[in-house]
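Exercise 3.2. Students should predict the tertiary structure of the chain below and write it as structure tokens, then compare their answer with the key that follows.

Predict this chain's 3D structure.
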Amino acid sequence: MLTSSFAAVGYSHKEPGKLITETSWTDANDKNLSAYLRSKTLAEKAAWDFIASQANANAGSANLRAMVNPKANGQRFLALAGEIMWLPGIALLLKNKMGDKGQKITTKTLPDWLVRVVALFNLRG
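Answer key:
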């Protein structure tokens, strides 16, 4: 089970009146998409690919087990596997796995002090 984002389904459709359903996808190759909309679409597709590739049936059933087990009531569950990945690591993984489509993904990072200084001038608050 995944909870989708409208960004992954609701953009780049050629038929404006056509009903958007669970089978709809935003076209990640649409040159008019913002990086945000493209990233939401690619991230969800990658998540579905990951779920489909798992041989262990328990890997995808954590949400279901938490919903149907009475002992789970009021409890908090973390679905974790492997090591923590920071954003630069995720960018590098995507760049390496997406072939030619991933070559525009930047893996550059800014120093923490620079981000903090620029944040002082952020008008969005």
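Discussion points: The chain is about 35% helix and 0% strand. The mean pLDDT is 82.
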